[in-house]
Structures are given as structure tokens and as C-alpha cells.
């Protein structure tokens, strides 16, 4: 744990607690106002509760050139990033990804895609659709461990986080309240519901909220598509390829479109936002994650559009390489923020319920 980052964030939090001008903003400030002293775990909790909407910065009278020099969005972003790195295993790779995420993502996608192209030389004797190039058994044996192992690493990190922030047994009302906030992205709506100040400075905008919504629901639809295909395959003996009006396609096509458009929106907004109001060292890693997530949706759509053409082998290798890279990088990319933010919202619901 970086005590310098924690202490600086604590200094700013204590000033905010004395001022209370931003009391109506997001979930962070009511959480601050419920306390008088802040342990290290409290600062970690507040950092992960922050959605970096930046409204508090533009409302604050104590930013530079004031001697207090408050920049709470940046202070919390740096603590948040440090906590993700600290809870990851191995932690040094998480730090490396934040510094060189685009390069690592590109190399990983390209390397895995080449590997999948080579594996297609061992194509099965029979099989339809994608399974004509790579057997179902081979896909399962590759992707199941690549999905489960990173989630296990995330689970260990969440266990450490929960202990540090003083979490207790999770009850249904706490989970329901947190999931409701996630579904509506409540904390990106600003204190008055006008949106956040992420890319337009002191002007409100809902663009980031809408891009996040498209990305979130696009990802969930794609995941539901894959899950429905798995159920059809193992539960009903219905093997791919599936027609357009099948459940996997009815979920996957709109999911891919939403995921692609949402990630394009997030990438554009990141180029407009002030880097000094976040953790500057995270910028490359965050952009790499957005690009990788968007590429997952886009290559999936291209692959579906190319069905029956000679472009399928190459597009299949690129798509599978992108998906596998996304899975492997879950504990180290900003994908992990979803897990920690949900945990922070659950913990906040617990504290509010106990107050």
C-alpha cells in the first residue's frame, strides 16, 4: 500500500468533509459525511466508490491556485489504481499493463491469432460453421481455463479488498441496492441528474453515461449469447452454427453492435477528457482495455457477416485471439473495475443500512 497516495487522499477527504459543499454529488460525499476519521481501508473504499465524474472538481473552491490544491478525482483515481494493482496476482504485471497496455494487448491479440491460424491446420474431419476450422473440444479446452483462472485471481483480490474495507456478510437488500445503481449507472448522472463533467469541463453531459450503458448492456448480451449457446449445445444437443432467429444470434448481434458503439464512444470521450483529473499513468491501460473490448464486439460482427466466405479462417483467428486476450487480461485491465466498483457499492449499501 502506498502511504503517500493514501495520506494525500485522506488530507483531501478531510477538507471535503469540513466543507460539505458537494454533499449532493454521487455516493462518495454522503459516505464521507458519515465519518469523522478515515482509516486506510476507508480511503480504499471511497476510491473504489468514485466513478470519476469530476463534478466535484469543477464545483470546488479549493482547487489550485488555492493553497489546499484539491483535486479529489485524481487523488481517488490514484488510490483506486494502486488498490487494483495491489490486489492483483502477480501485482507487477498489473502495473506493467497500466504503463504499456496498448502494446501488451496488441502483441497478445496478434500472437494468439497466429496460434489459432496454425491450429486450423489440424482442423477436424467433420464439423460445421466455426467448428469446421477448430473443434468444439479444442475451443472448450482452451477457453474454459482462460476464463476460469483469471476470475479466480479476481476472486482472491476481492477477498482481500473486502477484508481491507471491513465488509460483512452480504445480504439480499445490499446486493439489490448495488445492482440497481449499476444498472442505472446512478453515479454518472451527477448530483442533479444532469450528467457528469468528464469530457466537457464545467459543462454537464450524459454522453459518458450513455456510452457506459451501451458497453455494459452490449457485454451482458454477448455473454448471454454465449451462455445460451452453451445451454443449447449441452442441454438440448443443438450444436452450432445457429440461424439468425436463434437465441444466440438474437442476443449476440445487438450485443455486438452495442458493445462496439459503446467502446467507440468511450474512446472518443477519453481523448477529450483532462488527464490530470484522473490517474495519468492509467490512460494507456484504460484505452487498451476499451479498444480490446470494442474489438471483441466488432470482430464478432465481422465474423458473422463473413459466414460462408473465404475470410472466415482469418477472422475467426483474430476474433478468438481478441476474446482470449480479453479473458487473460481481466485481472490486470480496467475490466476489473466492474468487480471492485460493485463490491464498493455493496459495502456502501451495508454501511447505509447500518446507519
List the helices and strands and how they pair.
Blueprint: H1 3-19, H2 28-33, H3 40-49, H4 55-59, H5 72-87, H6 91-119, H7 136-164, H8 172-184, H9 207-236, H10 247-272, H11 283-305, H12 312-328, H13 336-354
Helix pairs in contact: 1-5, 3-5, 3-13, 5-6, 5-7, 6-11, 6-12, 7-13, 8-13, 9-10, 10-11, 11-12
Measure the end-to-end span.
29 Å
Number of helices: 13
Secondary-structure element series = HHHHHHHHHHHHH
Number of strands: 0
Task: Tell me the helix content.
Answer: 55-70%
Overall residue-averaged pLDDT value: 90
Uncertain segments: none
Transmembrane segments: 96-118, 130-158, 214-236, 251-269, 289-306, 312-332
Keywords: Membrane, Transmembrane, Transmembrane helix
Protein name: Tricarballylate utilization 4Fe-4S protein TcuB
Description of the structure:
It is a single chain. The chain has 355 residues and is mainly alpha-helical. The chain contains 13 helices and no strands. Helix 3 packs across helix 13 (336-354) and helix 9 packs antiparallel against helix 10 (247-272). The protein has helices spanning 3-19, 28-33, 40-49, 55-59, 72-87, 91-119, 136-164, 172-184, 207-236, 247-272, 283-305, 312-328, 336-354. It is 68% helix and 0% strand. It folds into two domains: 3-83, no CATH class; 88-354, no CATH class.
Short characterization:
The protein has 13 helices and no strands. The protein is mostly helical and 355 residues long.
Which labels suit this protein?
single chain; 355 residues; mainly alpha; 2 domains; elongated
Amino acid at each position: 500500500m502506498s502511504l503517500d497516495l493514501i495520506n494525500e487522499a485522506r488530507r483531501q477527504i478531510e477538507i471535503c468533509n469540513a466543507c460539505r459543499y458537494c454533499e449532493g454529488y454521487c455516493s462518495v460525499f454522503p459516505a464521507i459525511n458519515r465519518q469523522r476519521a478515515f482509516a486506510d481501508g476507508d480511503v480504499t473504499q471511497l476510491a473504489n466508490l468514485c466513478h470519476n465524474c469530476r463534478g466535484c472538481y469543477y464545483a470546488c473552491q479549493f482547487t489550485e491556485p488555492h493553497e489546499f490544491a484539491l483535486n479529489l478525482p485524481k487523488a481517488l483515481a490514484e488510490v483506486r489504481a494502486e488498490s487494483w494493482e495491489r490486489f492483483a496476482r502477480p501485482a507487477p504485471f498489473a502495473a506493467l499493463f497500466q504503463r504499456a497496455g496498448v502494446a501488451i494487448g496488441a502483441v497478445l491479440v496478434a500472437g494468439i491469432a497466429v496460434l489459432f491460424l496454425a491450429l486450423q491446420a489440424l482442423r477436424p474431419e467433420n464439423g460445421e460453421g466455426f467448428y469446421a476450422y477448430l473443434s468444439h473440444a479444442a475451443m472448450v479446452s482452451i477457453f474454459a481455463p482462460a476464463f476460469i483462472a483469471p476470475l479466480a485471481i479476481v476472486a482472491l483480490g476481492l477477498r482481500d479488498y473486502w477484508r481491507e474495507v471491513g465488509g460483512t456478510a452480504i445480504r439480499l437488500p445490499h446486493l439489490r441496492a448495488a445492482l440497481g445503481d449499476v444498472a442505472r449507472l446512478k453515479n454518472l448522472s451527477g448530483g442533479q441528474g444532469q450528467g457528469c463533467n468528464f469530457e466537457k469541463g464545467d459543462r454537464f453531459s450524459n454522453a459518458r453515461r450513455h456510452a457506459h450503458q451501451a458497453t455494459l448492456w452490449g457485454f451482458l448480451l454477448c455473454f448471454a449469447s454465449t451462455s445460451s449457446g452453451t445451454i443449447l449445445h449441452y442441454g438440448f444437443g443443438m450444436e452450432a452454427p445457429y440461424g439468425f432467429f436463434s437465441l444466440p444470434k438474437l442476443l449476440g448481434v445487438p450485443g455486438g453492435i452495442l458493445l462496439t458503439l459503446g467502446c467507440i464512444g468511450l474512446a472518443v470521450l477519453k481523448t477529450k477528457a483532462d488527464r490530470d483529473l484522473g490517474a495519468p499513468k492509467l490512460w494507456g491501460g484504460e484505452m487498451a482495455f476499451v479498444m480490446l473490448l470494442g474489438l471483441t464486439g466488432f470482430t464478432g460482427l465481422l465474423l458473422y457477416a463473413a459466414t460462408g466466405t473465404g475470410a472466415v479462417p482469418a477472422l475467426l483467428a483474430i476474433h478468438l485471439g481478441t476474446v482470449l486476450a480479453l479473458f487473460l487480461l481481466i485481472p490486470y485491465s480496467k475490466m476489473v473495475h466492474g468487480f471492485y466498483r460493485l463490491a464498493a457499492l455493496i459495502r456502501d449499501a451495508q454501511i447505509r443500512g447500518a446507519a
